[in-house]
Amino acid sequence: MRTLIFGGSGFCGSHLAQLCEKAGEEVFVTGRQKRPVLASSASFLKVDINEPSSIEEALIKSRPDRIYHLAGFASVRESFHHQEEAYRTNVLGTYHVLSGIKKRSPEARVLVVGSAEEYGPIDPENLPIKESTPLRPLSPYGVSRVGSTLMSLRESDRHSPAGLCLVATRTFNLTGPGQSDSYVCSDFAKQMARASLKGQSEIVLRVGNLSAKRDFSSVVDGMNAYRSLIEKGRSGHVYNVCSGRSIAISEIVGILGEISGLKICIEIDKKRFRSVEVPEVRGDPGKLVKETGERPGSLESSLTSLFLSWRRHLEENKC
Which of 260, 266, 265, 252 is nearest to 197 (CA)? Predict the structure, then answer.
């Protein structure tokens, strides 16, 4: 089995590459520049999804049986400041990826990753969010992911005899080792890991909106769901990848506080608030569970791994 992961040198892609490698697959990962990945034997291919020729070259070299498209503009916050880049990368970039696949690897099974941001704000009485929930994104990032997902589903063999065997996801919040500190769980874990290394017994934690509730899952659970969906998912369908539970950001702080052993003092930082804040996000994973059997595991274990990975990183780099 030959597997190609567009965006495979990023946070989620690295974990996915590791799982595929453990399953005995020959793995190829792409990125605009080479970065360390968890799967040490994965072959790196330089690709910019805004450059169609680099996509075709990667497909020719990898000759994949399975293709995961995880590449793209990933920041909700930054999308408000860089709207054109978000639209160009996530919509036109996905078009380039799918066009390359149709030309060079039309028999491959394909998974395209989307986001819960596609749904936008949902009234509490309409939670949990199902795949049939109307799409009303507020962020430019969410709008760009709607375009990417709908375009991908249109290219599936469900809608055209010459289409691709393709499934799509709307993925909710994932966390775990290797995540950038621009994301809330990793930000808190890094702050606490640094204080722990300094021998502090307490920390003043700079935070944004602690009342917001989000549906968090372990990144490993998320990547296991991707692997199951590319094998068992129905072509032309979209699947929520989520836990089905919402947890307040304040609870995340509490869990990390217990893991680190630190006393937490809160300092509100208005710069950490989003310009548009959705009070609660909670998905319905029923379709995923029914068709693949995948169920989310313990968030606490993922947060523990995240905290310990930051401690190792900071200690090794004397940060």
Answer: 260
Nearest to 221 by CA among 172, 131, 294, 287: 294
Whole-number Å distance between alpha carbons of 73 and 207: 24
Beta strands 263-268 and 2-6: pairing type?
A: unpaired
* 31-89 confidence digits (pLDDT tens): 988 765 565 689 999 999 999 999 999 999 999 999 999 999 999 989 999 999 999 99
CB distance 111 to 168 below 8 Å: yes
Mean pLDDT of 150-178: 95
Report how far residue 122's alpha carbon sits from residue 120's, in angstroms, rounded to the nearest whole number.
Answer: 6
- In sequence order, the β-bridge partners of residue 69 are 6, 112
Q: What is the pTM of this model?
A: 0.94
Total length of the chain: 319
Structural domains in the chain, sorted by start: 2-174+216-241 (3.40.50.720), 177-214+246-280+298-316 (3.90.25.10)
Query: What is the distance of C-alpha 223 from the center of its chain?
Result: 9
Question: If you ran DSSP here, which 8-state letter would residue 182 be given?
Answer: T
CB < 8 Å & 24+ apart, contacts of 307-316: 307/189, 307/192, 307/193, 307/256, 307/259, 307/260, 308/177, 308/193, 309/177, 309/178, 310/186, 310/189, 310/190, 310/192, 310/193, 310/194, 311/193, 311/196, 311/197, 314/190, 314/193, 314/194, 314/197, 315/197
Residue 161 is which amino acid? P
